[in-house]
Amino acid sequence: MAKKIISWVVLSVLILIFIVSSSSSWMKKITEQRWKSNNKIWRSDGFRYGDLFYMSFLSNYKIDKSWNPKRVKKDSSFIDLYIIGDSYLKYITDKNIFAGVDNLMFVDWRYEPMEISLRKNKKNILIFETTERHFRERFHDTSNFKFQFVAKNKRPASLYSFNEIIRIVNQFLFNKNINQNLEFNLFDYPIFTKIKSIKADFNESVFSRHSPEVSMADDKSILFLSTTTDTTVTTSSFNSVSEKEMDQIRMIADVVFQHYKNFGFEKILFSVIPNPVSITGYKNYTYNNLIPLFENQKVNFTLVDLYNDYSKKPVLNNYFAGDSHWNTNGLQLWLDKINAELLK
Amino acid sequence: MLFNSLLFIVFFGIVTIGYYLINPHKRWILLLTASCYFYMAFVPVYILILGGTIVIDYFAGIYLEKTQGIKKKGFLIASLIANIGVLAVFKYYNFLNENLSYALASIDVSNPVPFLSILLPIGLSFHTFQAMSYTIEVYRGNQKAEKHFGIYALYVMFYPQLVAGPIERPQNLLPQFHKQFIYDWEKVKSGLTQMAWGLFKKVVIADRLAIVVDQAYKNVELQNGMSMTIAVVLYSFQIYCDFSGYSDIAIGAARVMGFKLMDNFRTPYFSKSISEFWKRWHISLSSWFKDYLYISLGGNRAGQYRKYMNLFIVFLISGLWHGASWNFVIWGALHGSFIVLAIQRDKIFSLLNPTIHLQKTLLKYFNILFTFSLVTLAWVFFRSNSIGTSVEVFKKLSSFSFDDKITIALNSAELGFSFLLILFLMLKEKIFFQFEIKSDFTFWILTGLMVTGIYFFGVFSLNQFIYFQF
Q1: Whole-number Å distance between alpha carbons of B39 and B157
Q2: Average per-residue pLDDT in chain A?
Q3: Are B136 and B58 in contact (CB under 8 A)?
Q4: What DSSP state is assigned to residue B200?
Q5: Whole domain around residue A135: which residue ranges?
Q6: What share of chain A is helix, strand, coil (3-state, %, to 5)?
Q7: Is residue A319 part of a domain?
Q8: A12 in contact with chain B, both atoms CB, cutoff 8 A
Q9: Which of B394, B413, B374, B387 has its CA nearest to residue B225?
Q10: How far apart, in whole angstroms, are the C-alpha atoms of residue B310 and residue B302?
């Protein structure tokens, strides 16, 4: 009898884990909760110690990932600031670090568009922030360009057509991320982080092998995302950019600029955040010069350049060793430049 | 769904516990649903193709049993056409069309036949052959037609062996679905240990060796004779650990639920001849070809030369079964030639009749090494993407060059570790072939060690099993 009860309990737990891991919306909620949590048993270390550490678990690259940008003194708040950005800014949405900003709206490139209506009594400014590794794919095709801020009531109502229902059912039953989700639900707890690090350190020190998701700098001082070093993909800093492609990017940039200008924005800033590996170089690969090439184009945006400033200092001055993002210094440098533009 | 994924572990837990908890009469429903989900986790829509052939073969089986004479033959042919037709469309259509294009291009004519942009349904050759073995056995009167549609569907779709075998015979598997297995801890222990060993072979050995092999075959021009030789030899062990690892997991998963699937491997690299190799490698396929093709062609009943011809044809088709490319045809032809030549060689050797023990022992080890070398060289065609690559590999092998830089993807420590693993594998498979673990203590220690080994030394890249593509 006891065996039977235990079997039912185990079965129920497994089914529950399976159902939760299959649901994208539940996983999103659980992930956010566990990333924010400080509970030593329940929390996920995914965000805490750096995304590259989380991919590799190499203890030398375990960092304390946090940003402490300076708050600005505000005499007046006359700007409504809209940002289309990515993970570089997703977790830094304190309006007080931006000069003169009364209202801050942030939308991620990857998520659903946000409906907005501009306030006429404010100066409406839009910032495009994109990491270098996703720049080319985001500005690849005008017809597929994601206009992330849309006018209120302009978004087409979602219709539950037969195909849509099939898609939703498929997405649940055969969730493409289910293995990552199961890993997160079963093995992403502080107790396992230590074990994972032992394994990773052993493999690195004895076999010189680490997770294929990360690449190590020649001097081993910093990790990079492998997608930024793999020369065969467009996310790489070493995948060459043709003149034709650069023309295409400029053309799309013009269309996008005009779209948002017509929308009512007074000023539109554009900033490409360099891949750390673009600053350091890697092996004997040649940098594709994506950022300098783009910034030399005649575009209507107000460009906020970081590449030249970052290149003047050692990479760890502006980036984390175990995270693919900027550190507080890197962020502050960007903020100083943005704030100067906001106040112009 | 890959056996080396977390999803499979959870899936296996749910299905197995559920299997023992529900009413034994309803188990087929759970197993069939689970098998459908398992298959649909790859490409959901392909379940329709599989479902279609199941319906055809189910009714074919019933009518084959009811009818006689020409009508009976007609039902068999219809069933075979349906099965081979699916294979032909999905696996061979584009290959044939490509060759037609080449042929027409040589006389400056463009090919008007369109190419199909379709993906090969996973494990198609496996479940098609299993379905064919059912209708052939019913036709031959060796198997009664299965009246229960759900059980028949389960015979084709039973998830442990659905996508990469072992290719079962109806006489072995169908009666087991009618049995009501009771929970047996000994079988569970044995099954779990075999699964753990299979997973060890896949993620610790095969996927580690794959790092060297993949890099070498991807950049043949960067290899020297030494590094290419290492990669070619390691591929023999990679494919063995990959495929036999899959079979171990399949057989073990079935055994946990009480089922007994047929053995698929018996230490093939200890074979003393190619014919022995084929009795120990992918046994379920080689015996399928023997039972249903070789014998149907006349076997050895129509004279010596006809026997050689039949053997050669069987291996040629076996090559094509593996994949629609000339590489596989050459691989099959090579094995066919080896078999025929080995028969001649055995005749000569039998005249030598070594009497001294030392001579016998030396001859035995020479034969093992010689057979392994032939198999390993033939694998070059199996692994290469094109005949051109195979030729390049052979050029590198024959150069015997040790100059330039050696570009092996693993460092020397890991390469050494890989060879140790191979040694361990060979010893384990030779000495402890079966998993008969009597004491619970041994079971927990052994399984614990294997799981720890898998975790710490496993290469987790979600590499597909090589034989999934067939």
Answers
A1: 8
A2: 88
A3: no
A4: I
A5: 79-159+229-343
A6: 45, 15, 40
A7: yes
A8: no
A9: B394
A10: 10
- Partner-chain contact B10 A206, CB within 8 Å: no
User: Is the complex ipTM more than 0.90?
Assistant: no
pLDDT digits (tens, 9 = 90+) for B125-158: 899 999 999 999 999 999 999 999 999 999 999 9
A134 within domain boundaries: yes
Under an 8 A CB cutoff, do B462 and A183 touch? no
Asked if residue A142 belongs to a domain, the reply is yes
Closest alpha carbon to B219 in B80, B457, B75, B396: B396
The length of chain A in residues reads: 344
Q: Which single residue is written with the structure tokens 């021009």?
A: B221
CA geometry: angle A30, A31, A37, nearest 5 deg: 85
Using a CB–CB cutoff of 8 Å, tell me whether A194 touches chain B. no
Q: In sequence order, what are the residues at sequence separation of 6 or more whose Cβ sits closer than 8 angstroms to the Cβ of residue B469?
A: B120, B122, B323
**Residues of chain B contacting A212 with CB distance shorter than 8 Å:** 461
Alpha-carbon distance of B269 to B105, in angstroms, equals: 43
In whole angstroms, what is the distance from residue A165 CA to residue A159 CA?
Answer: 10
SS3 of residue A150 by DSSP: strand
Specify if A17 maps to a domain: no
The tally of domains found in chain A comes to: 1
Axis-axis angle for helices B27-40, B149-157 (nearest 10): 40
- Cα separation, B204 vs A203, whole angstroms: 13
Strands (E), A86-216: 101-108, 114-116, 123-131, 149-151, 214-216
Q: What is the pLDDT of residues B169-216, one digit of tens each?
A: 999 999 999 988 888 988 999 999 999 999 999 999 999 999 999 999
| CATH number of the domain encompassing residue A300 | 3.40.50
For A83, which DSSP code? Answer: E
The tens digit of pLDDT for each residue in B359-370 reads: 677 888 888 999
Asked if A14 and B17 come within 8 Å (Cβ–Cβ), the reply is yes
pLDDT value at position B436?
A: 67
